[in-house]
Specification:
The chain is of the alpha/beta class. It contains eight helices and five strands. The structure holds zinc ion (ZN). Zinc ion (ZN) binds next to helix 5.
Length: 204
Amino acid sequence: MPTTVPSAYSAQEALDRLKEGNERFVAGLARFPTLQKEVLAELAKGQQPYATILGCSDSRVPPELVFDAGFGELFVIRVAGNVLGPSILGTLQYAAAHLKTPLFVVLGHEGCGAVKAAISAKFEGARHKSRIEVLLENILPALDGLDDNQPLDALVSKGVEANVRHTIRELMETPEVKANLPGSNIILVGAVYDLESGLVRFLE
Ligand SMILES: [Zn+2]
């Protein structure tokens, strides 16, 4: 992958674009039904995405559609439960060091199957297939402190947000982020997508 020039957008502008795009998506006013050949030709020269999104593989949460973003706008990583791992961290580092996207979003979603599986493992002792258990080990620490004495829907919802916050915290603890984020114009933010309304709620 060739090195490219960084995004023309500041982190705040990039965040505003995502928020506006999601508003258009929710309002049924998405701008990107098709792609022009000229746009493809221009994009073939190189990419200059303004945001990196770490989202879940869930088929109902495609970041480009959710944010009404076109080709070349978002650098997207999708893994069940939007968890970290060596390959994910490597991809994030590439986004930071080479693409220089000003904005990083960890995007969870309501009703996440990976979070549900982690909840069932933690509170009910459910067992899962071996590689899925390895995946869930990334989510389990996020669930510490959650009270399982509440309706499952509410528990999953809290677990989803806790998992996003956990991923953000883990990222903040990496030497690369510690060295580069403070004092920079980069924004790292968590968000939760609602399956029913299509709304993305950005976390404080
Ligand atoms: Zn999910």
